[in-house]
Write a structure and sequence with these properties.
The complex is a heterotrimer of chains A (about 240), B (about 210) and C (about 625).
Chain A lengths: L1 H20 L11 H19 L3 H16 L6 H24 L31 H19 L31 H10 L24 H14 L9
Helix pairs in contact in A: 1-2, 5-7, 6-7
Chain B lengths: L2 H22 L3 H22 L21 H13 L24 H4 L2 H9 L34 H14 L21 H6 L10
Chain C lengths: L3 H12 L3 H14 L1 H7 L18 H36 L2 H35 L1 H34 L7 H33 L9 H9 L4 H29 L4 H39 L1 H8 L4 H29 L4 H23 L8 H7 L13 H24 L2 E2 L5 H25 L5 H32 L2 E2 L10 H27 L4 E3 L3 E2 L10 H33 L5 H4 L21
Antiparallel strand pairs in C: 1-2, 3-4
Helix pairs in contact in C: 1-2, 4-5, 4-7, 4-9, 4-19, 5-6, 5-19, 6-7, 6-8, 7-9, 9-10, 9-18, 10-11, 10-15, 11-12, 12-13, 12-15, 12-18, 13-15, 15-16, 15-17, 16-17, 18-19
Classes of the chains: A mainly alpha (about 240), B mainly alpha (about 210), C mainly alpha (about 625).
Chain lengths: ~240, ~210, ~625
C-alpha cells in the first residue's frame, strides 16, 4: 500500500503546514477550517491525478485498494474489509447527521466586507478641492472622530478597537481603501454600520452613522486625510 | 427541515445514486449518466456548503413632500433620482470617468445658474454649448439629451428641482432651491419657466 | 395572482380520499389547464397586467430553465459550425480526409440541433410574453427593428445550413469544394450575427443607455450599442468554440467507452483528441475576454461591478474558480494521459515535467480559490481579527487572481507544447539553441507575470488595471505567438522516434472528457445566473424595476441546484440529438458494407472510417 501511505503522509504534511506553520508566520493568524479543508482537497486531488497518469502508477495505487475491497483469499484482512464496509456508511451518516442536527454553536458566517453601495452613492465625487490645507483639516477631523477606533496610524488599532468584532478596518492594508473609490468611503462613513445591505450584516458593525454628526464637507475632507495618511490612493478611472 | 438541508439531502442522494450506478451497472452510457450525476451532485453540495444569502430588493421610495423640511432633504432625494429614476447617471458622471458618454457634471452647480439647469433638463435642444464650459454665444448642436420632463423618464417639476438641489450641493454651492417652491399635492403645478425665474436669487456664478 | 393556486389545493384536498388515480387525473388536468389559468386570472381590465405566475413552480423558475436551455443549445449550435468548418478547412488544406469526415459528422447534427434550439427559443418567447408582459412591451418598443433583422437572419442562416449540409457530397472536389468552404464561412458569418442581435437585447438589460427622441431605427441602433454589447459578443463567441470542442470531446469519450472494436476505438480516441485540442485552444483565450467584459461592467456601473466581485455574488466567483480549475486540470490530465498512453515509452521521460506542471497548477488554483471574505465560525473569525485572513487575505484580490490565471494559462500552453513535441527528435542544427530560447522565454514570462502581480499591490488601482493586468495578458499572448511558430518550425525537420498509437487510452480518459464538457456547461449556467442577478431587482438596470414577487435573487445553493438541473437536461438533450442523428449509421455500419461506400465520402460515422487513413502523428 505504498502510494496510499504516501497520500496520507502528504495530507498530514499539508495539514501541519496549514495548522502550525502558516499561523506562526509573523503577522499571520490561524486558518479557518473551511480553508484548511480546501487546501487538503487540492492536495488529495493533485495526488490522485498524478497517481493515475500511467497504467503502472495507477495499478500501484489502486490495485491494493481494489484487492482489499473485492479480491479473494485476503486472509485476516477479511475482517478489516467488513469493518470498513460497515464503518464507511456509518461515517457518512454521522457526517450528515452532524451537518443537519440543531446545535447551539452559532453558524459559520460569511460577512461581505465590501458590499455593493446603493446606486445613489456610486457616482459621486468630492466637491472639496484637494489642497494641502483641506487634507490637513481632514487629518484633524480624522484624529478627532475616527482615530479612537481606526488608530492614529490608520492601521485599525486605535485604543477602542479591541472591543469590537469585526474589528475596525485597517486602512494601510492594500486590500481595503485602496480597492475602493472615494464615493464608496463617503457612503460607508455617512451611513455607518446600519446602512450596510444584508450581506454586509448591518447588525454586526459598530461604525456610527456619521451623517447625524458631521456635515458632508467634513466627511469628504476626512476621506482625503485618510488616503493621504495611510499612503494609499483611491480607485479612479483616470 | 430548512430548505438548505432539504437541498443538501437531495444533492447527497443524487451523488449516492450515481455511485450505485457506477458500482452495479455495466452499460457504458448509463455509467456516464451516473458519473455526471455525481459531478452535478457534488457541485450542488459545494454551493450549499457556503453560507446562503439571498439578495432582497430594497423598499421602493416615493417622493413625499411632507418629509422634505430643508434644502438638504431635497438634495438627498435629488441624489436618489439622479442615480435611479432620472437615469442621469446612465450618461453623465460626477467627476472624470472613462465610461462617461456625456459631459462630466462635476462642479456644474457652480458653473451654471439654476435657471439654465432647469432649461437644459426640460428643453435640451434649446440652447446648447458644444462645450458646456464655453462662454459667449451659444452654438447650435443636436443634443443627445432626452426631455427629462416627458416620457419615458418623465420627472415631475418637484423631482427636477430636487436634482438641481443635489447638483448644487455636489458642487459645494449653497442650495438655491427652497422647499417652498415645491408644488404641494393637489395644487396645480406652476408653469416651469415662470417658476424657475421666480426662484430666490443667489445664483452662483463661480469662476 | 396569489389566488390561482387556491382551487387546485382545494381540489387536491377533497380528492385525497378517493385514491391515487383520481388524484393523478386531477393533477394532470390541473397541469394542462395551467396556461389557461394564467391567462384567465387577470381578466380585470383596471391596469395593464405586469406579471403572470404559475403556482408551485413559479414563473421565474420556468423562464430560468427554458432560457438557460435555449442559450446552451444556441451556444452548441453556434459552436459546432465553427468547429466543423475549422476541421473542413484543415482537411482541405492538408488533404487529410478524416478531418473532412469529422466535420461532416458534426454538421449532420446541426439540422436537428438547430430545430431544437429554435423550438426552445419559441417556447421562451411565448413564456416571456405570458409571464413578463411589462418588460416585453418595453423591450419590443425599443427593439422591434432588430426583431425583424433577427427574423431575416434566421431565414438566411437556415437556407445556408441546408445548402451546406445537403450539398456536402455534391461539392467535394475542385472549385466546388472551395465554394463549399465559402458556404461554411457564410454559415458562421450569419450565425455570428444571429448571436450578436439578441446579445444586444440582453446586454441592454444590464447596461442600458438613455434613448433620446428619434426614429425607431435610431433608437434601436442607439440601444444596441450599449457598453457591454461587444465584450459579451466576443466572450460568447470564444465560449461557443470551447463548448463545441468539449462537447465533441465528450461525445467521442462516450463512444470510446462503448466502442466494441479497435477501429471504433482508434477513431473516437482521435476524435476526443481533436475535441479537447479545440476546447483548450479557445479556453486559453477565454479569460482575457472575460476580464475585458468585467472591466467594462465595472466601468459602466461601480455598483454592479462590486455586486459581482466583492458583494453578494463574490462567492459565485469562488465557485467559478473551482469549475475553471477542474476544467484546466481535466484538460491537462487528458494531455498527460495522451503522452503516457499514446506514445509508448515516454512516461519515464515526462514524469518529472508533468509533476512540476501539476504542482504549479495546484498552487495557482489554491491561490485562485482562496476567498477574500472567508467562511469562518465566530471563534475563528475572532482569532483572524475579522472575516479576512491577515496573511492569506492578499490572495483574495484581483491582482493575485489575475496573476494565477495567467500562470495557469501558461502552464496549460506548456503542456500542449510538450504533447506536440513528444515522441519526436529534432534534427535541425539550431534545435538546441531554439529550445534554450523557448525555455528562456517561458521562464522570463512566468517571472514577469509574477513580478507584475506582486507589484500590483503597491500601485494605485487604475495603474494596475490599465497597465499591469494588460501587460500580463500581453506577455502571455506574446509567449503563445512566439513559441507556437517556433515549435512548428522546429518540428518540420524533426524525425518521429515513436509513432502515436490510437485506441490505447484507459476508460478514465473518456470520463475526463465528459467531465470537461460538464464543467463547461456548468460554468455557462453559473455565469448566466451571475449575469442575471447582477441586475439585482431591475429588469433593465436602473430603468425598469422588477416589481414581481421574484425580484429577489435566490441564494447560491438554490441557484446551484437549478444550474445542475439545467446542465443535466442539456446533456440529455444533446445525447438525444446525437442519438437521433447517428441512428442511421448504426444500421449501416455492422455489415462492413459501409467500407465500400466510404470512397464516395459516405457516412463518416462508425469506426470503419479510420481504417482508411492510418493514424499519423501530429
Amino acid at each position: 500500500m505504498g502510494p496510499l501511505i504516501k497520500l496520507i503522509i502528504l495530507n498530514v504534511i499539508a495539514y501541519v503546514i496549514c495548522k502550525f506553520v502558516v499561523p506562526n508566520v509573523p503577522g499571520s493568524a490561524p486558518l479557518p477550517a473551511s480553508l484548511v479543508f480546501l487546501y487538503l482537497m487540492l492536495t488529495t486531488s493533485g495526488f490522485l491525478i498524478f497517481a493515475t497518469l500511467s497504467a503502472e502508477s495507477k495499478e500501484a495505487f489502486w490495485g491494493p485498494i481494489q484487492r482489499f475491497l473485492t479480491g479473494e483469499n485476503i486472509g485476516g484482512l477479511q475482517a478489516v474489509r467488513y469493518g470498513v464496509l460497515i464503518l464507511f456508511p456509518l461515517l457518512v451518516g454521522w457526517q450528515t447527521y452532524n451537518n443537519t442536527a440543531v446545535s447551539d454553536a452559532p453558524p459559520s458566517e460569511n460577512r461581505t466586507i465590501h458590499p455593493a453601495p446603493p446606486g445613489e452613492y456610486t457616482g459621486l465625487s468630492s466637491p472639496v478641492a484637494k489642497t494641502p490645507d483641506n487634507i490637513q483639516q481632514g487629518k484633524g477631523f480624522y484624529a478627532a472622530f475616527c482615530s479612537p477606533c481606526h488608530g492614529g496610524n490608520f492601521d485599525g488599532k486605535g485604543p477602542a478597537a479591541r472591543g469590537f468584532n469585526p474589528p475596525p478596518a485597517n486602512f494601510s492594508d492594500p486590500t481595503t481603501i485602496a480597492m475602493l473609490q472615494e464615493s464608496y468611503l463617503f457612503w460607508r462613513i455617512k451611513k455607518g454600520g446600519v446602512g450596510l445591505p444584508i450581506e454586509g450584516m448591518p447588525w454586526k458593525s459598530a461604525m456610527p452613522r456619521w451623517e447625524v454628526e458631521l456635515p458632508d464637507e467634513w466627511i469628504w475632507k476626512i476621506i482625503m486625510g485618510e488616503y493621504d495618511g495611510a499612503h494609499q490612493s483611491p480607485r479612479t478611472w483616470e | 427541515m430548512s430548505e438548505v438541508v432539504k437541498l443538501q439531502l437531495i444533492g447527497l442522494s443524487v451523488v449516492g445514486i450515481g455511485i450505485l450506478i457506477l458500482l452495479f451497472i455495466r452499460a457504458s452510457f448509463v455509467r456516464v449518466i451516473g458519473f455526471v450525476a455525481i459531478v452535478l451532485g457534488l457541485f450542488t453540495l459545494v454551493a450549499l456548503s457556503v453560507p446562503q444569502m439571498a439578495s432582497l430588493p430594497p423598499v421602493e421610495e416615493k417622493f413625499d413632500i411632507a418629509t422634505v423640511k430643508t434644502p438638504t432633504d431635497m438634495a438627498t432625494i435629488g441624489q436618489k433620482i439622479f442615480f435611479s429614476k432620472g437615469q442621469c447617471a446612465l450618461c453623465h458622471t460626477i467627476g472624470p470617468s472613462e465610461s462617461a458618454r456625456c459631459p462630466d457634471l462635476k462642479g456644474i452647480g457652480a458653473k451654471l445658474s439654476r435657471e439654465f439647469l432647469f432649461e437644459s433638463l426640460t428643453q435640451p435642444q434649446a440652447y446648447i454649448y458644444l462645450d458646456y464650459r464655453h462662454e459667449g454665444v451659444a452654438k447650435e448642436y443636436p443634443a443627445r439629451m432626452p426631455y427629462i420632463n416627458k416620457n419615458p423618464i418623465g420627472l415631475s417639476r418637484n423631482e427636477i428641482l430636487s436634482v438641481i438641489a443635489f447638483l448644487q450641493q455636489m458642487s459645494g454651492e449653497p442650495i438655491s432651491v427652497t422647499v417652498t417652491e415645491l408644488d404641494a399635492p393637489g395644487q396645480a403645478p406652476a408653469a416651469p419657466a415662470k417658476a424657475a425665474q421666480s426662484g430666490p436669487v443667489a445664483v452662483a456664478q463661480a469662476h | 395572482m396569489q389566488h390561482q393556486g387556491g382551487w387546485i389545493q382545494k381540489l387536491l384536498r377533497s380528492s385525497s380520499g378517493h385514491g391515487g388515480t383520481l388524484l393523478g387525473l386531477v393533477m394532470a388536468v390541473g397541469l394542462l389547464s395551467l396556461p389557461a389559468l394564467a391567462f384567465g386570472a387577470d381578466a380585470t381590465p383596471a391596469a395593464p397586467v405586469e406579471y403572470r405566475d404559475v403556482p408551485y413552480v413559479g414563473s421565474r423558475n420556468i423562464i430560468w430553465v427554458v432560457a438557460q436551455l435555449h442559450l446552451l443549445l444556441a451556444g452548441f449550435v453556434l459552436g459546432v459550425p465553427i468547429f466543423a468548418w475549422l476541421c473542413e478547412v484543415v482537411a482541405w488544406k492538408t488533404g487529410e480526409k478524416r478531418y473532412d469526415k469529422l466535420a461532416k459528422e458534426f454538421t449532420k447534427l446541426l439540422t436537428s440541433a438547430y430545430a431544437t434550439t429554435a423550438l426552445f427559443g419559441g417556447i421562451l418567447l411565448f413564456l416571456l410574453i405570458s409571464f413578463y408582459p411589462k418588460l416585453m412591451n418595453y423591450l419590443t418598443d425599443i427593439f422591434f427593428p432588430s426583431f425583424i433583422v433577427y427574423c431575416i437572419l434566421f431565414l438566411v442562416e437556415t437556407a445556408t445550413l441546408y445548402l451546406y449540409w445537403y450539398g456536402w457530397d455534391a461539392m467535394q472536389d475542385g472549385g466546388k469544394k472551395t465554394f463549399h468552404i465559402f458556404l461554411g464561412f457564410l454559415l458562421n458569418f450569419f450565425a455570428f450575427f444571429i448571436m450578436v442581435v439578441p446579445n444586444s437585447w440582453a446586454t441592454f438589460q444590464s447596461s442600458p443607455v438613455v434613448l433620446a427622441e428619434g426614429s425607431d431605427m435610431a433608437r434601436a441602433w442607439a440601444a444596441t450599442w450599449n457598453p457591454t454589447w461587444w465584450p459579451v459578443n466576443i466572450h460568447r463567441l470564444i465560449a461557443n468554440v470551447v463548448l463545441g470542442g468539449y462537447i465533441c470531446g465528450a461525445y467521442a469519450g462516450i463512444r470510446y467507452l462503448s466502442a466494441t472494436n479497435t477501429e471504433e476505438r482508434d477513431h473516437y480516441d482521435w476524435m476526443g483528441y481533436v475535441g479537447n485540442f479545440i476546447g483548450v485552444f479557445g479556453l486559453l483565450a477565454l479569460p482575457f475576454a472575460g476580464y475585458w467584459l468585467m472591466r467594462e461592467i465595472y466601468q459602466y456601473n461601480q455598483q454592479m461591478g462590486i455586486t459581482l466581485m466583492g458583494g453578494f455574488l463574490s462567492w459565485l466567483f469562488i465557485l467559478q474558480a473551482m469549475l475553471i480549475g477542474v476544467l484546466f486540470l481535466g484538460s491537462n490530465y487528458y494531455f498527460w494521459l495522451g503522452i503516457t498512453y499514446r506514445i509508448p515509452g515516454s512516461e519515464i521521460k515526462y514524469r518529472k515535467p508533468m509533476l512540476a506542471m501539476l504542482i504549479a497548477l495546484l498552487l495557482c488554483l489554491g491561490v485562485w480559490m482562496t476567498p477574500h471574505s472567508l467562511v469562518a465560525s465566530m471563534e475563528e473569525a475572532r482569532k483572524m481579527g475579522g472575516s479576512h485572513h491577515p496573511l492569506l487575505g492578499v490572495f483574495g484580490v484581483m491582482s493575485a487572481k489575475m496573476t494565477v490565471a495567467n500562470l495557469m494559462i501558461l502552464v496549460t500552453f506548456m503542456s500542449f507544447i510538450m504533447y506536440w513535441r513528444a515522441g519526436k527528435q529534432e534534427t535541425a542544427g539550431w534545435a538546441k539553441v531554439a529550445k534554450a530560447i523557448m525555455g528562456a522565454i517561458l521562464a522570463s514570462a512566468a517571472i514577469a507575470v509574477i513580478i507584475l502581480g506582486v507589484w500590483g499591490y503597491f500601485v494605485p488601482a487604475i495603474i494596475r488595471i490599465n497597465y499591469f493586468s494588460t501587460s500580463q495578458v500581453l506577455v502571455v499572448l506574446g509567449v503563445m505567438l512566439t513559441i507556437t511558430p517556433l515549435t512548428a518550425l522546429l518540428l518540420r525537420s524533426a524525425k518521429t522516434t515513436t509513432e502515436m498509437v490510437w485506441g490505447k487510452m484507459p476508460p478514465r480518459a473518456g470520463y475526463s472528457l465528459v467531465l470537461n464538457a460538464v464543467m463547461v456547461v456548468l460554468l455557462m449556467t453559473l455565469m448566466g445566473y451571475a449575469r442575471s442577478s447582477s441586475r439585482v431587482h431591475w429588469h433593465v438596470y436602473g430603468v425598469v424595476r422588477d416589481t414581481s414577487p421574484y425580484a429577489f435573487s435566490p441564494a447560491l445553493g438554490y441557484a446551484a441546484a437549478l444550474m445542475s438541473l439545467n446542465t443535466f437536461f442539456f446533456c440529455m438533450l444533446v445525447a438525444f440529438i446525437f442519438w437521433v442523428a447517428t441512428m442511421g449509421d448504426k444500421a449501416k455500419a455492422p455489415g462492413g458494407a459501409s467500407k465500400v461506400e466510404l470512397p464516395q465520402g459516405m457516412p463518416a460515422m462508425a469506426g470503419a472510417s479510420s481504417a482508411l487513413d492510418e493514424p499519423k502523428a501530429h
